Amino acid sequence: MAPAASSRLDCAQDQPPPADSVVSSPPSAVSRDEMTGDVDATEGEHDSSGRNSDVAAPMVRSKLSCNFSNHQSNTCTMEGDVRIHGKPATVYVVKASTYLPENSTIKLRPYARKWEDQVMQLVREVTMRSIPPAAGADGDDVTPPECSVRHDVPAVVFSTGGYNRNFFHVMTDVIIPLYLTARVYNGRVQLLATDYEPKWIAKYKFVLAALSAYPVIDMDSEDTVRCFPSAHVGLESHKELGIIPGLSRNGYTMVTFREFIRAAYSLQRPRVAPVSRSSGRKPRLVLILRRNSRQLKNEAEAIAAGTEVGFEVVAAGPDDVSDLERFAGVANSCDVLMGVHGAGLANMLFLPDNGTVVQIIPWGELKWPCRHSFGDPVAPMGLRYLEYEATAEETTLNETYPRDHAVFTDPLAIHRQGFDKVWNIFINGQHVILDIKRFRGFMEQLYQAITTE
C-alpha cells in the first residue's frame, strides 16, 4: 500500500476518514509559523486552592506564542494576564506591548489531528485575542472581560471531541498529547475541555486525575471569566500512539507514559516474567474480539487452538474492553495481547513490559498501514511485536468476489483506486476466517518464543 496521508488513518478507525486528507494551513490572521508578542499583564495574589477572586496585581511581562508548523496539532502558549471566557471560547491576552494587528486574533481547534479536515470540523474553535496596551489602538476596540475567578496554576485547553469513542484515537489524539503538555506540572494545572462530554470525562477519570489535582472544567457551558498566570491552548503531539523522545522537552517517552498509565490505574504488574514450560503455569493471552467489521468468524476454534497449545486464553468482547477500569487490570495480568487489526489493540498500553502484541492483519495488502498503527509503536513501549497475516483463503471476501477479481489477483490495484475503495472493501468490508491448522502452527511458535524450558 503506497504511503499516503489518508491511508495512515484506516487501521485504527471504525469510521471512515475523508477521501483525501490535507494538512491544515495556519489561520490567515497568523503571518508565520511562530508568532510571538510581549504583553504587560496583571497577576493577582492566590490562595492554596488554586484560585482567588482578587484581581489587583503588580505588573509583569509575558508572551504569547503559537506554533502552526507541527503536523499533528496547532498550539498556542501564553503567560501573564490571561483571561479565558468559556461560553464564547475566547482567550484574552491583555495589554500586549508589541501588539500587531495582523496577529491580534488567532483561531485554532485544540485537537491533535489537524490534517484531517472532516474530524476537525467536529471540534470547537477557540479564539485568542491579543489586546493592545491602549484602548482603541490601531482600531482595536476590544475590551477584555473582568476576571470572575483567578487561578494560581496554569491552564490547558483541549477538546474531548473528534474520534472520542475510539480508544486508539483517544490515546493518540488526546491522552498522550495531554501527558506531553500537562504532566510537567505534577498535578498543579487546570484542565479546561471544549466539546465537553461527561461520559468521556468519567471514562478517563483516572488518567485526568493523575494529570490534574482539579476537576476538569466544562468550558462550553459556563459564563465565568477565569484568569490564569499562563495557558496552553491545544496539545503537544508527535505521532500515532507514540512519543518522539527528541521532541519531548521533558524527556518523556512511551516507557515513561506507560509507567504513568500503570500508576493511574494502580496496575500491579510492571514486567512479564518468562514462564517455564515445566512449571505447569500457563502464559495468559487476551484475545480482543470485534463485533462489527473485521470479526474473527471462527473465534471459538481460535480460542480452542490457543488453549490446546498451552495458553490460558481470555476472550474480551466490546463490553469487556469498554469497561476501562476493569479491563486495564485484565490486560496487565496477561503476557500476550492478540486481535484482528483495530482500535482494541491500543490496549497494549496496559501490558507489562516485555509483553507481546500479536496483530492479525486482514487480507488486502494491509501490512504497511497496519504496522504503522499497531506495529511501529510496540518496541518504543518496551513490548514485542508479532503478526499473523491472513491469506486469500482466510477472508469472507470470498463470499462476495470471484477469485479472479482484482481483490484477490491484484489488491494494490484496488489501493490505486483511492482510499474509499480500500476502506469499503478491505477495512470495513470483510471478516477473518482463520485457517485453524495454520493458526495453530503460529500459536505453537508463539508459545515457544515466550516460554522457557
Automatic annotation (TrEMBL):
Ranges where the record places region Disordered: 1-55
Organism superkingdom: Eukaryota
InterPro entries listed in its UniProt record: Glyco_transf_61_cat (IPR049625), Glycosyltransferase_61 (IPR007657)
Record keywords: Glycoprotein, Glycosyltransferase, Transferase
Protein name: Glycosyltransferase 61 catalytic domain-containing protein
Annotated ranges, domain Glycosyltransferase 61 catalytic: 167-358
Upper taxonomic lineage: Eukaryota, Viridiplantae, Streptophyta, Embryophyta, Tracheophyta
Biased composition (Low complexity): 20-30
Organism name: Urochloa decumbens
